[in-house]
Specification:
Number of helices: 5
Helix content: 25-40%
Number of strands: 7
Radius of gyration: 16 Å
Order of helices and strands: HEEEEHEEEHHH
Shape: globular
Largest sheet: 4 strands, mixed
Strand content: 15-25%
Length: 177
């Protein structure tokens, strides 16, 4: 392998949707038995297909991959994303694993696949502290928890009180990083 090839990053990229109900709670889906961390909860979304990673700097590719993942996981067909005004990154594993939370807003359609539920910030906090197999992936302050809080703190969350609570919690967890 050439020295230049060693220096090129080949990250894994995940995209996750911030979908809300009218009350401002965020949608999470439960991981299936055949997935890693079965029984745990996370935002709808998943990995960008490997052959599309190199094009992932194009927001249209990110939007298409997010739509594909959401439909595959929970059966909701998102409309084409005209532009993404915000993408909240969470990078781990020395920069080789990237995850982006993308706020979608209120979707009135109910998921048609899998187990799912809407969570308030207080319920999200409680879920993060549950034992593995029935918790938010990674637990309190970890990547999925921070992404969900970032979605709740975004202007796309229709509940101002939830936005304030989420911002306060994010500050608490980010000060520990």
């Amino acid at each position: 392998m050439l020295e230049e090839e060693k220096m090129i990053a080949h990250p894994t990229i995940g995209v996750f949707a911030g979908i809300f109900n009218r009350e401002g709670c965020i949608l999470l889906k439960r991981r299936e038995k055949d997935e890693s961390l079965p029984g745990d909860w996370d935002l709808p979304g998943g990995g960008v297909e490997e052959e599309k990673n190199v094009k992932a700097l194009d927001e249209r590719v990110i939007g298409d991959e997010l739509r594909r993942e959401v439909e595959e996981e929970i059966g909701i067909i998102l409309p084409p994303l005209q532009s993404m005004q915000a993408m909240y990154p969470a990078v781990i594993s020395g920069g080789e694993d990237w995850a982006f939370g993308i706020p979608i807003g209120i979707i009135n359609e109910k998921p048609r696949k899998g187990e799912w539920r809407y969570f308030s910030p207080a319920e999200l906090e409680d879920l993060a502290r549950q034992p593995e197999g029935n918790r938010l992936v990674g637990g309190p302050g970890k990547r999925m928890h921070r992404l969900a809080l970032q979605m709740l703190a975004s202007r796309d969350c229709p509940n101002e009180e939830y936005r304030r609570i989420a911002r306060r919690l994010l500050n608490k967890y980010q000060s520990k990083l």
